[in-house]
Amino acid sequence: MRAKVEAVREAVARLPRGLAEHVQRVTAEADRLATGFKELDRAQVALAAWGHDIARALSPQELLARARGFGLEVSPVEEEAPILLHGPVGAEILRQEYGIDDPQVLAAARFHSTGRAEMSLLEKVIFVADKIEPGKVRASPALARVRELADRDLDAAILEYLDQMLIVAREEGWPLHPQAVAARNELLLARRQRE
Known about the structure:
By secondary structure, the protein is an all-alpha fold. It is built from twelve helices and no strands. The chain has a single domain (2-194), classed as Hypothetical protein af1432 (Orthogonal Bundle), CATH 1.10.3210.
């Protein structure tokens, strides 16, 4: 696993500087979040964090072309906003070009942007780490609330982020990704059942 982490780290070093720095901050944040969960394999956390944005620098046209080339189903929402494909395309790049076959790592990379229902703990850690790394919180101060919640409850942090995303999507007239809607609904219903 160590050799795969190093290969992906080298690929990240070739990404545009700002993106590479973001990935480094997400990796540090994921490691910090993972310390609270003894059941997490830290090598999986590192590999998923380093690899999550491997396709983020691709243009919308490249993302669509790579998705189709990999045989991925492209939803109407992804067709409208191809940036949402960087997770699924990235997961395929990790699998096909870097030999990563760990389904948990690939799922964490695949769903780090949208989330999904029934996320694993690793998926939740990568999803949240991507949203609360210090550079993103500086750029969007509302994410400080997500960061605060993450230290106590990953599900609450994810729900807060998805609620914030819902407001922005409504204000901007953006469609919501069905997987994000499914994740929000699942978390919302689970919270209501606990109350």
